[in-house]
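Handover notes (outgoing to incoming on-call)

Open items:
1. Molybdenum cofactor biosynthesis protein B: sequence verified, structure written out, both below. Nothing else pending on this one.
2. Nothing else urgent.
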Amino acid sequence: MSHADLAFVPLKIAVLTVSDTRDESTDTSGQYLVQAITEAGHQLADKAILKDDKYQLRARVSSWIASSEVQVVLITGGTGFTGRDTTPEAIAPLLDSQIDGFGELFRHLTYQELGTSTVQSRALGGLANRTAIFCLPGSTGACRTGWTGILAEQLDSRHKPCNFVQHLIEVE
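Molybdenum cofactor biosynthesis protein B structure tokens:
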């Protein structure tokens, strides 16, 4: 069976930008992710911009995890090492299981672009209540690397030998 013979399953994806300075007009990373998911055939379930506050982040992401209207959460920003970067600390306690390979592969891909500066990326992925959550750095370039290098295939039901879609949908 070829890739073309398999059915595409559109996912409901929420996008969250974590930033103390961005708004809808300056959120190029969130805008990129929205464009990428819709061009791929997925549905935008929700979009938000929140200040880098781990309790606000946990509250918003928890509501998406609990909702049947969200199957994937893409978070951009707050993954660095400044005092305000709390995305990994906010999200990790919500996960039922971590996807260690996501952060590892993301850093491998960005090493080819940025060299050793990639060690400062705390990109994170995991599953919670049949919801996939991926935390990316805040730059548009990092979002593009994460989407084109990993997420586009792993969120595509046609990608073989495996993808995350089977973990996100109810099989009848």
